Amino acid sequence: MQHEDTIALWLNRHLPTPLAAFAMFVIKQAWACLFAGCLLIALIGTKLIWQDDWPLARYDALVLTAISLQILFLWLKLESWTEAKVIAVFHITGTLMEFFKVSAGSWSYPEPGLLKLYDVPLFSGFMYAAVGSYMVRVIRLFNMLFAPFPPMVWHFGLAVAVYINFFSHHFIWDVRVLLFLGTILLYAQTRIWFRIGARWYWMPLPLAAFLSSLFLWIAENVGTFTGTWIYAGQGQLQMVSLDKVGSWYLLLYVAFATVTLVKRDVLKRNPVAPAQTAPAQRSQAVQMR
Question: In terms of CB atoms within 10 Å, which of 18, 89, 93, 267 comes out highest?
Answer without folding.
Answer: 93
